[in-house]
Design a protein that fits this description.
Layout (H helix, E strand, L loop, with lengths): L1 H4 L2 H16 L2 H15 L25 H20 L11 E6 L5 H12 L3 E6 L11 H11 L2 E5 L3 H10 L4 E3 L7 H15 L10 E5 L4 H10 L5 E5 L8 H13 L4 E4 L2 H5 L4 E4 L11 H7 L7 H4 L7 E4 L10 H4 L6 H20 L12
Parallel strand pairs: 1-2, 1-3, 3-4, 5-6, 5-8, 6-7, 8-9
The structure holds phosphoric acid mono(formamide)ester and norvaline (NVA).
Length: 374
C-alpha cells in the first residue's frame, strides 16, 4: 500500500533533494531545497483533515502535512479527555484486529499500542521476534501478504527503515512504524502533545517555541524534526562530531524549515542549542543494536549530559523531555527527577497518541471536543 499512498510529487521532490545532496555544492543544494520547498506548497493534503487518513501507512511524519499532524493531536487529546476524564466508552475498533510485531525490546510502544487497541474495542496480537517467522524463515513480502488477510492493521518495530517500508509496500492493510533505526514518529506525537499540555496556559500555540536537542543524531530527533518544524517549532540540534543527523534527514529538515519559516540549527556545541530553549530533549547515547559501540560513544558524548548547570542557559520556563528508557549518563538525576521533567506525562501520552493513529488509519473518528491550538 505504501507506494499508492505516498504523494508522488512529494516523493519526486525528495528524490531530487537526495540526488542534489550527494552531487552538488552546499550553495546549489540550498537553492535546490528552496525551489523544492516552494513546489511543495502544492502537495498539502485536503482541507477536511479526518478524511485523508483511512487506509494510509504511518511510517514517518515526513509523509504528513502540518494539518494532518494537528488533526492526529486533536484526536489524541479528544480520546484522552473523553476516555480518561469523562469516563466515556468508545469502541469503534470492535471486530478489528492488529498484529503488533516487535523485533526489538519495548515497554512503552508495546504496552500503549496493545492496551490502546483493546481499549478501543479491537483485538491486538503481540508477536515478538521469536514468535514470528519474519526475517528468519519467511520474507517480509510473504509476511505482509499473509497478515493482510488475517488482521486489519500491522505495527512493526524493526531495525532498518527499509524493512517497514518493504512491509508497507506489500501489505494491503495500514502499516505503523513502531520504531526503526531512522524514525520513531509515534514518539514525536506524544512529545508534541506533552508540550502542548504543558504550555497551553502560557502560550496561545506552539508556534515559536524553542526546542533544543542535546545528544545523538538518531531516530528520535529525526522524527521530532519532521513533526515540530511544520508546526512552527524552532529546532536547535547539538550532536557530537561523527554522531550528526543522517544527511538526508538534515537536508529534508532544512527544506521544512524554509517552507514553514522555522529555525533549524545544527551545532556541535550543546550550550548553543540550549540557549533560550523552552524544551530540552535528549535520548540514550546507545540505541538498541549499538551496544558494541558503547565505549566509543561514552567517550564521544563527554560534555553532553543534561545537567542543571547546562539548563541555566535555557529560557526561564524550560522543561525536560526524554522518550525513555533513560540512563544517567545522558541526563543527571537533578534534571530527570525535577519538577521540570515531564517524562512520565510524555510516556502516558504514548497511549493516547498511538490510539489516535490506529483509529485514524482504520476509520474516521470525529472528535467531539474543541480543536486545540497547536
Ligand atoms: N520510547 C519508547 O519507544 O520506549 P519503548 O522502547 O519502551 O517502546
Ligand atoms: N534511540 C532509541 C530509542 C528507544 C525508544 C533506540 O532506537 O533504541
Amino acid at each position: 500500500m505504501y507506494c499508492q499512498k505516498f504523494d508522488n510529487i512529494f516523493l519526486c521532490n525528495m528524490a531530487f533533494v537526495w540526488k542534489q545532496f550527494t552531487r552538488t555544492s552546499p550553495s546549489l543544494l540550498r537553492q535546490s531545497l528552496l525551489s523544492t520547498a516552494s513546489r511543495c506548497h502544492s502537495t498539502e493534503r485536503p482541507v477536511n483533515p479526518g478524511d485523508g487518513f483511512v487506509g494510509k501507512d504511518f511510517l514517518t511524519l515526513r509523509d504528513f502535512s502540518a494539518t494532518d499532524i494537528r488533526h492526529l493531536l486533536w484526536v489524541a487529546q479528544d480520546l484522552k479527555t473523553r476516555i480518561k476524564i469523562q469516563k466515556e466508552r468508545i469502541t469503534p475498533l470492535s471486530g478489528k484486529s492488529a498484529a503488533l510485531i516487535f523485533q526489538k525490546r519495548s515497554t512503552r510502544t508495546r504496552t500503549s499500542s496493545e492496551t490502546g487497541f483493546a481499549l478501543l474495542g479491537g483485538h491486538p496480537a503481540f508477536l515478538s521476534a521469536s514468535d514470528v517467522h519474519l526475517g528468519v524463515s519467511e520474507t517480509i513480502h510473504d509476511t505482509a501478504k499473509v497478515l493482510s488477510g488475517l488482521v486489519d492493521l500491522i505495527l512493526l518495530r524493526c531495525d532498518k527503515h527499509e524493512e517497514v517500508e518493504e512491509l508497507a509496500k506489500h501489505a494491503s492493510v495500514p502499516v505503523v512504524n513502531g520504531l526503526s533505526e531512522t524514525f520513531h514518529p509515534l514518539q514525536t506525537l506524544a512529545d508534541i502533545l506533552t508540550m502542548k499540555e504543558h504550555f497551553a496556559s502560557r502560550y496561545a500555540s506552539l508556534d515559536g517555541l524553542n526546542v533544543a536537542w542535546v545528544g545523538d543524531g538518531n531516530n528520535i530527533i529525526h522524527s521530532l524534526l519532521m513533526g515540530c518544524l511544520p508546526l512552527g517549532i524552532n529546532m536547535r540540534v547539538a550532536t557530537p562530531k561523527g554522531y550528526e543527523l543522517f544527511p538526508n534527514v538534515a537536508a529534508y529538515a532544512d527544506l521544512l524549515a524554509n517552507k514553514h519559516s522555522t529555525e533549524f540549527l545544527v551545532t556541535n556545541d550543546p550550550l548553543e542549542a540550549v540557549r533560550g530553549a523552552n524544551v530540552i530533549v535528549t535520548d540514550t547515547w546507545i540505541s538498541m543494536g549499538q551496544e558494541e559501540e558503547k565505549a566509543a560513544r561514552l567517550k564521544a558524548f563527554e560534555g553532553y549530559q543534561v545537567t542543571s548547570k547546562m539548563c541555566e542557559e535555557a529560557a526561564s520556563d524550560w522543561v525536560f523531555l526524554h522518550c525513555l528508557p533513560r540512563k544517567q549518563e545522558e541526563v543527571a538525576d537533578e534534571v530527570f527527577f525535577s519538577p521540570r521533567s515531564l517524562v512520565y506525562q510524555e510516556a502516558e501520552n504514548r497511549k493516547w497518541t498511538v490510539m489516535a493513529v490506529m483509529l485514524s488509519l482504520l476509520g474516521q473518528h470525529t472528535p467531539t471536543t474543541e480543536q486545540p491550538r497547536f
